[in-house]
Amino acid sequence: MSDIAMCQKKFIVHLVVLLLSMRSRVNYLMLYCYGKYSEKSYHTPGVGYFWSGCAGSVKWGLELSALAIGDIENQTALHYHARQTEWQKGTESLQIWYAKQLCSGALELQQMTKILTADAFFSKKPFVDMVCAAGRFTFVSRLQHNSYLRYAYTGEQKPDRGRCKAYGGKIDLSNLDTAILPSLKRMTMKLFM
Fold first, then answer.
1. Do residues 185 and 178 lie in contact, with contact meaning Cβ atoms separated by under 8 Å?
2. What is the structure's pLDDT at 138?
3. Which parts of the chain are beta strand (E)?
4. pLDDT value at 173 more than 70
C-alpha cells in the first residue's frame, strides 16, 4: 500500500468506516448521502446549457463536438476528431468557438477533403467565412428555416442621390424565378432528375 497516495488512503478509510457503520442493506448508489464526499463538492469543467437535438430544447450538461470523415462511395463515416466544448458564456459566440476549433486542424483536414458539410446551426456568415478562409473549403449546409434570401438587383439604377439598389426581391424557395436565374433551370433539372 506504499504506492497509494495520502488522499486515497483517507478516502478508503472513510469508505470502510462508512460501510461498517451503516445498518440494513447497503445501497452503493446512495452512499454519497451519508459520507462527506459527494459529487456536488467538485466543479465539472465545461458544464453549461447546450442544444439537445433529441429533446428539441436547451439542456444542462456537457457537450462533445465531433468531426467525422465521410466516404460517399461506401456510404460510411469514420470518427476523426472529438473535443469537449469548454465554451464560457460572454467570451465569444459558440459558432466562433467551433470555427476556431475547425481552423486549428484545417491543414490536416485539407489533406483528406476539400468539402465540409454541417448542420443548419452552422450556416451563418461568420462561421462559413472563418472556415472557408482557413482551409479553402467548399461548405455545404442546409439553410435555417428563418433564412432571408434576396435576388441581386440587375436593373437600371436611378440617377437620384443616395445608395444604389443592391437587392431585388425576396427569394421564394418553393417557387424560384428562373427568369432572374437562367442557370437555375439547368441546375434543378440536373439535381432532381
1. yes
2. 87
3. 48-52, 57-61, 64-71, 76-84, 115-118, 138-141, 150-152, 167-170
4. yes
Question: What are the extents of the domains in the chain?
Answer: 6-41, 48-141, 150-192
Neighbour count for residue 15 (Cβ, 10 Å): 13
* Rounded Cα–Cα distance for residues 51 and 58 (Å): 4
Residue 68 pLDDT greater than 50, yes or no: yes
Torsion of CA 152, 158, 163, 168, to 10 degrees: -20
Give the mean pLDDT of 38-45.
Answer: 64
Statement: residue 148 has pLDDT above 60: yes
Question: Within the chain, where are the H helices?
Answer: 6-21, 94-104, 106-112, 125-135, 182-192
pLDDT digits (tens, 9 = 90+) for 119-139: 888 888 888 889 888 878 888
Query: CA angle, 80 as apex, 76 and 83 as ends, to 5°?
Result: 130
CA gyration radius for the chain?
27
Per-residue pLDDT tens digits for 176-190: 777 776 666 555 444
By C-alpha distance, which of 5, 36, 3 is closest to 18?
A: 36
Identify which of 72, 88, 108, 95 has the alpha carbon closest to the alpha carbon of residue 144.
95
pLDDT at 58 > cutoff 50 = yes
* DSSP helix/strand/coil, 122: helix
- Distance (Å, rounded) from C-alpha 170 to C-alpha 152? 10
